[in-house]
Give the backbone structure.
Amino acid sequence: MTSKKEKEPETASDFWPCEGYITANTSFYSEHMASRKKAIAAVKALAGELYRLGWSELKMEYAGYGDSMSECNVVLVNDDSEDRDLHAAPARELPPEETPDSIERKLLELLPIGFENEEGGSGVLVITTSDKKIKVMHDMYYTETKSEEMTF
């Protein structure tokens, strides 16, 4: 059985289909994709460090709407499936030179652009430290409108 190598996202719509309106011709798009690639590399390096410290997963639950983040909870999970709030973890349980805030900032870089705008969105980001896999399960909220016009 051959293993299929995962393809790195090259466009915004490869990474987040709902961001398909962003085109490669904009500097915003280029800057965003460059920033996201750096963030992915930084989070994968962080995953390796967390694995060496005995953590099996890093999870972030997030939500936002009305132009602001309303929820952001980050937990570390060990091999016994015990959760520890990232902000309550002693410094000895985190990689050197990392703080809960610096870790949280790295994770925020991986979320969809503007998910907190308008009706908002929510999701869960899970990093498996043993294989450095990053998975984001995201829901965008939207208002559906049905219009009707009648002339008499």
In short: Confidence is low (pLDDT under 50) at residues 15-21. The first strand starts at residue 55 and ends at 65. Residues 26 and 134 are 27 Å apart (CA to CA). The first helix runs from residue 12 to 15.
